[in-house]
Predict the 3D structure of the following.
Amino acid sequence: MTEKIELEKIHDYLWEIPQKAGMRVPGRIYTSEKMLRDIRQDRSLEQVVNVAHLPGIQKYSIAMPDIHWGYGFPIGGIAAMDVEEGVISPGGVGYDINCGVRLMATNLTEEEVRPKLRQLITELFNSVPCGIGVSGKIKLSTKDYKELMQKGAKWAIERGYGTGEDLERIEDHGSFPGGDLEAISKKALERGKDGIGTLGSGNHFLEVDVVDQIFNAEAADAFGLFKDQVCVQIHCGSRGFGHQVCTDYIERMISYMRKEGINLPDKQLACAHIKSEEGRGYLSAFSAAVNYAWTNRQIIMSFARDAFHKVFRMGPKELGGRLVYDVSHNIVKFEEHKINGKTKKVCVHRKGATRALPKNHPSIPEIYREVGQPVFIPGDMGRASFVLVGTESTLEETFGSCCHGAGRLLSRKKALKSGKGRDLFAELEEKGIIAMARGKRTVVEEMPEAYKEVEDVCDVVHNAGIAKKVAKLRPIGVIKG
Amino acid sequence: MNYEILDHTADVCVRVYGKSFDELVKNAALAMMDLITDREKIKSFKQIKIRAEGRTREELLVHCLEEILYLHQTKKMVFRDFEVNMVGETIIRGKAFGEQIDLEKHELFSDIKAVTYHNLKIETLNDKLKTDIVFDI
């Protein structure tokens, strides 16, 4: 569909869209020849071009190998804006503000878990609220909301969901400053009041994995990962709260653009200057939603720990249940990056992209400073996921960012057609994976073939040098909404 | 045909038709509800008021769908039918008819996060109105 967009090959894993009329910078796509054929099937390259029109964009409109057609920004897109003259775009973060992934490592091996795997998955399925229309166990009062918006994951820890050690292993210690109740609509409060501690549905999941292969022993060791170890991956975000914050501010920014005479190729790119009242308002509401998402993942991990303790009759010390790290992949952050040889503060939008910092970077926990920041790239529920580590090139080339997942290949419509008459639960079980889901249709829409091969995606970033492979995870159990 | 589902890689795109703008909005609301649940299983018709405003027809359409989505998620209801009435050019006063969600009875297919403006344009085609709406799922 985007056959007509001209691409120039820079090297085997990088292509450039030359700067044309209206574009403020060129586009850059990290991919392989093979994956580019699929990328050309949808309209995502057109979206890379559209993002290049945004005021204040620096260097390039960047896309990762898991790029696919979203709305406004492509999914797998990165854009850094000048803080003085640039804009902030809620669509450049997405509706699911601070959607992200965390990895929890246990002391258990696959051999120890297998005999009780069904019991474990059942316990996880019963203890982690998931699915559409399912309320969480915690109801938020206005006072709770106010505190949670300011404290983030710390709010959950103060209520017994985890320990202080967890906070060191979350981006920004699980708390963004500036979350303000005044910036939040009543609708957002209403949509979020029973969503805390819930997984949601769609591509969100809680997965039990085994470390299948180690590529980088030094980094794996620093991350506390060893072969055959059982880990838990949690993927979810800010639920209805974040969705409504994004909805509210897109409306405000459409009015702002009308007022300021800003014209963009797609209304979904709605934006406002960072320093404008609308821009600052979004940042306050966005920060609250970021904190909501961190709290959400913290509580879900705590439920998962409890499920392990119950099934294996182990205490926290024996189980391990240590948070390796928590990464955000729908986010905007103010960071310092080198642009034309000078260090400059920019506003980095990551829409389906993960921060990936190199060793010695001050923004990563001390325990990982000698190796670099852990990055988690979930694949699909039938094949694999990857643990990567940031490199120096990540900072130089992609504003310290890499990919975020496998990226969809089939539309939900095509997946449903391909799943007709098949028993996906049985197919997964044949591969040794126990899956449980509230919505049977979700499992069909999320079938492994609906996604690109995650190893191809990770190989591109590995070979391009923007992140390095550390370990491969193989799923053995999954719960879905 | 009132609507058809088009291919969209990550989300869901629906092409909606209507003889008038009111009908286009109603058909878009029915399409959205069909993405959420099987409307045939909704048997009672509790009435809920809908009110939306917008400076353009596209904004009015999106705001009306957002309002229905909000009512579905916060009142925990599913809707079988809608009534859409225009007040002037910029306001919709309508009604949604449905019942409380009962997970035993209503299977919920999709958790729609939002109604987007992505490439949204209402066009006239052979005396009919047509538009493509992308829902974030």
